[in-house]
Amino acid sequence: MRTLFRKLAPKSLLGQMLLAVAAALMVAQTISAVLQYRASEQRREGIALNALAFQLVTEPRFDFRQPDRRGAAAMGRWQRLRVQKTEESPLLPGEVRDSQREAALKAILADQGVQPVDLIVLTRDTVNDPFVMAQLREQERTEWAQGRLLVAAMRRDSGPEWTVARWAVGGPDPGQLGALIAQTLLLYVILVGGLAILLRRITRPLAALADRVERFAETRQIAGQLEPSGPEDTRRLITAHNAMEARIVALIDEKDVMLGAIGHDLKTPLAALRVRIESVEDEGERARMAHTIEDITRSLDDILSLARVGRPSDPLERTDLAALVASVVEEFEDMGDAVELGETDRLPMKLRATWLRRALRNLIGNALRYGATPHISLKREGGEAVIRIADNGPGIPEGEIATMMEPFKRGEGSRNRETGGAGLGLTLARAIAEQHGGHLSLTNRHDKAGKIIGLTAEIRLPLGT
Length: 465
Fold this sequence. Notes:
Elements lengths: L1 H7 L4 H46 L2 E6 L10 E6 L1 E3 L12 H13 L6 E8 L4 H9 L9 E8 L6 E8 L4 H46 L12 H45 L6 H26 L8 E4 H14 L5 E5 L3 E4 L1 H18 L4 E7 L2 E7 L34 H11 L3 E8 L5 E11 L3
Keywords: ATP-binding, Cell membrane, Kinase, Membrane, Nucleotide-binding, Phosphoprotein, Transferase, Transmembrane, Transmembrane helix
Organism: Alteraurantiacibacter lauratis
Catalytic activity: ATP + protein L-histidine = ADP + protein N-phospho-L-histidine
């Protein structure tokens, strides 16, 4: 039940507020209806008991008004009846006395100075009342014998004579229900309608702010900031957010300038060192030095790429993802690496091809480094494109999978490029996947005995990108 309510309930602030107000108003009107109904019933009960008391005390002729078929409150048909005097018991076989009404009627009679020896109050159908039916038959009005009667019988002394009075029991007034419905509709129009207008004024700038936050998270561009609007609190929120965006962009610009300077200042002396080592006579030493310089250069490239991935300069372009995956696999095959390309679904989508190639190269390179003959596939699953790179290596201990995608975290302790590098490949691949609105996950594969037989790296990208 709770799950169904969550599915059907509105998700927006405006919808939830209106639903809450509508529900509160419905509860309030329900309570009001119950209280009005109880008050109406008490009023009708008081009228009936006082009328019976008046008849029992004064014994007048009275108008017996019988409800017609349209409702208990339509009292147009009536018959002149007399208060009955009889020595027979007014209690017919099978009838039950109403002790609560007897006590109430006795209190009313006591206020008039009447202390009956015996008092009976009961309710019966009109057709079961011999006295009323006899008079209706005399008038040939038996079709009026509908509804119920409230019957009160009193003995003033110990004699056998009973004074019997009757009162037609009607139902609740249908006009009262109609008035309550009209009142409820009017309240809904005024309160819910007015609140909807007010909340719309509040939520419209909040919705625009939410859209702006999403765009800024994707582009990191300050262009298109919102003008403050709405209530004072909302205007202050938009102003503060604009200031925060400006500060974030300034920090990112400072970071880019700093990283550019670092890259330039480091790559220039590295290039000079590469030239100088050519003068080293020992070939083995020269090769080791060159390898060290290449290692530093690649690490520097990884660090700079990781810093730039959150603010890409190249736009999204429509690309056939299957062709991109196949081209990356061909690169490894051309270098003599054993890589298998499995089933691929043709999935044209908008992406940054250069960045995604970088992520795939990192993942396939890791699979080749720790396993043999990685298997790459591309499939469409629901609304996502799923790229899987499966190897047959040693996998990763279950407790370390999450930390392996953190910067400079790796399974092998050294920084040797041949055994694992600087530990930025997985971090960069995850950042690129998230840049495209997707995510990267690592999962161990097990055999039937539960032994790890390899690792599967999986990139999931939404097809809407």
